[in-house]
Amino acid sequence: MTGDSSWSVSSIRTALESKQISARELAAEFFGHIEAQNPRLNAFLTLSRERALSQAARIDHLAAQGAPLPSLAGVPIAVKDVISTRGIRTTCGSRILENYFPAFDATAVDRLVRAGAVVLGKTNCDEFAMGSSNENSAFGPVRNPAAPDRVPGGSSGGSAAAVAAGLAVAALGTDTGGSIRQPGALCGIPAMMPSYGRVSRYGLIAFASSLDRIGPFARSVRDTAAVLEVIAGHDPNDSTSASSPVGHYTADLDKPVNGLRLGIAREYFQEGMDPEVRQKVELGIRLLEDLGCRRVDLRMPYTDYAIATYYILATAEASSNLARYDGVRYGLRVPANTLHDMYGRTRGLGFGPEVKRRIMLGTYALSAGYYDAYYLKGQKVRTLITRDFREAFTKVDAIITPTSPVPAFRIGERTSDPLQMYLADIYTVTGSLAGVPGISIPCGSTKQGLPVGLQIFGPHFGESCVLQLAHAFEAAGGFEL
Amino acid sequence: MNVATLAHLYLSDAEVNTYLHQLDSILTYMDKLNELDTTNVDALAQPLFDAASNEQAALREDRTVPCNLWEEVSRRAPDPNSSFFRVPKVIER
After folding, report:
1. How confident is the model over A1-50, as pLDDT tens digits?
2. What end-to-end distance do the CA atoms of chain A give, in Å?
3. What sign does the dihedral B69-B75-B78-B84 (CA atoms) show?
4. A170-175/A76-80 β-pairing
């Protein structure tokens, strides 16, 4: 379900160029939407009015001079609160960073601002991006705009809800095991995880460094591509950032998709999947076949091991990355008489239950005597899962799967059993481990009106093909299947 | 729990009880990986670069760039002192 705002990247440009609206008026309009709806949705944690209005003023100045406008001129954007924004509070959804104000912008934010985008504020998320429902935020859950008693998905639930409700034209999220794609599916909007290395992680507050990625949410595939085009590219500040050239994502959107080979792996259509989700995704695949794509049946035998692998590697990396929150240099400090006491109390009070659980799991997986059995074993199985994808992409151009086995569930319905919550990430974590790009796009709704997501994986740096398929699907009415 | 000590994480008794049970079931689930023979499989640390052939790709010149952020950083630090962060005494631990 979408709000009353129908602005897109291109309609904003047209309106600015023809002086129908100023960037400042547009920003004010969006702050108005946020004021009206955020008390209910809890999608934004912090608004950055001052900075937004000065960014907008810069665009208005360019427009007044008749100067060429940058590609995202005036586009109101929301940024997930695990991405650093200079001088704007960045909490990671955690008490431990409740009063943290970064001294620099993440590269992705810097690129958006240079491209003329207007950053409205920071969006709610699961604490340190750990969760699939947004219920792990220290600042309360986000509500799904399509069904307010239900979760928006997670961890980028605030970004997904903000865009779905029309509180921003686009948003940045982060995806470690599905945290962009799954909330995109549950809120009914396009949501893209680019290839590992495609978008700089500089300024992204780390959860699991070999898996974390920044990517866009928008209301259309075209706008998703427009944002990705801006944030993608090599950055010397991220040693895992790739130097291969960025594709012309928007220019390539209308390229024909007929003849493309789509892999369908039976491992992604197993028991436990909601029957309505299955039915919609099968309809979606048929629609792509009607567009001239060829269906190729695949086996991806290591899929079943992806959850265990992911939760070993991600928690191991998290336990190491989150060691930096010690109360010494920034964030919360609980005073104590000894240094170790200070660490233990600060972390015990500052972290929430899911973060503690994962730090302990990861510490265990990395500890002497268990390292080989868990962490090293996980890295080896990661090789096998990656091999599944590599072999698949010798036979097909893209792989089509459901994004989530279930539509949005009720707030509080699944919090008691963490393992059950982890298992629902089954269709997204595989691509995370393999480093490939994936998009979730809307694929109709259940009878109750809950959005269903269809996922398209491409090969490394195959973003163009993934976006073309998504765009053709949207143009053919697939979002309303 | 020894793991909580390793992680510098103070937990209440109630937390310890909950986590013991939950971590046990999660670790049991993870044992599923032992079904796979990975004897001749290399470990994958990150998915992008084939480290052997592409090591240079991730290296750059080590240059000094100015970074005058102390004032901004110290202003919000828990206990800053001239150009340091103050912590409890560590000598007499």
Report:
1. 344 468 999 999 999 999 999 999 999 999 999 999 999 999 999 999 99
2. 14
3. positive
4. parallel
What local confidence, expressed as pLDDT, does residue B56 receive?
Answer: 58
C-beta contacts of A10-14 below 8 A and 24+ residues apart: A10/A222, A12/A73, A12/A74, A12/A75, A12/A169, A13/A69, A13/A73, A13/A74
What's the token pair of residue A326?
A: 């010690």
Q: Which residue of B has its CA nearest to A329?
A: B77
Q: CA quadruple B8, B10, B16, B21: dihedral positive or negative?
A: negative
Provide, rounded to the nearest whole percent, the portion of chain A with pLDDT above 70.
Answer: 99
- Active-site entry in A8, A80, A280, A464: A80
In this complex, do B3 and A331 lie within 8 Å of one another by their Cβ atoms?
A: no
Of A306, A280, A331, which is closest to residue A441 (Cα–Cα)? A280
pTM of the entire structure? Answer: 0.96
* A340 touches B at CB < 8 Å: yes
The span from the CA of A417 to the CA of A323, in Å, is: 26
Concerning whether A80 is annotated as a catalytic residue, the answer is yes
Q: How far is A2 from chain B (nearest CA, A)?
A: 36
Measure CB to CB from residue A343 to each of B8, B41, B42 and give the nearest one.
Answer: B8
> If you measure CA to CA, which chain A residue comes closest to B35?
A305
Residues paired with A453 in a beta bridge: A442
Query: How many C-beta neighbours within 10 Å does residue A287 have?
Result: 18
User: Looking at CA atoms only, how far is residue A104 from chain B in angstroms?
Assistant: 9
* DSSP SS3 for A431: helix
Question: Quick one: which H or E segment has residue A32?
Answer: helix A23-41
Please check the confidence at residue A220 and state whether its pLDDT lies above 90: yes
Listed in sequence order, the residues at least 6 apart from A401 whose beta carbon sits closer than 8 Å to its beta carbon are A265, A268, A281, A427, A454, A455, A457
Q: Residue A3: its pLDDT value, please?
A: 44
CB contact under 8 A, A435 and B48: yes
Q: Is the peptide bond before A156 cis (omega within 30 degrees of 0)?
A: no
The model's pLDDT over A230-274, given as tens digits with 9 standing for 90+, comes to 999 999 999 899 988 999 999 999 999 999 999 999 999 988 899
Enter the DSSP assignment of A62: H
SS3 content of chain B, % helix, strand, coil (to 5): 45, 5, 50
Among B26, B19, B25, which Cα is nearest to B4's? Answer: B19
Which helix or strand (DSSP H or E) is residue A441 part of?
A: strand A438-445
Is A137 a catalytic site residue?
A: no
The shortest CB-CB distance from B36 to any of A236, A243, A381 is to A381
To the nearest whole angstrom, how far is the Cα of B86 from the nearest Cα of chain A? 8
Task: Look up residue A353 and give its amino acid.
Answer: P
Q: List pLDDT tens digits, range A296-339.
A: 999 999 999 999 999 999 999 999 999 999 999 999 999 999 99
Return the residue in B1, B10, B64 with the most chain A beta carbons within 10 A, the one to mutate for interface testing. Answer: B10
3-state secondary structure of A97: helix
User: Known catalytic residue: A179?
Assistant: yes
Omega within 30 of 0 (cis) for the link into B12 = no
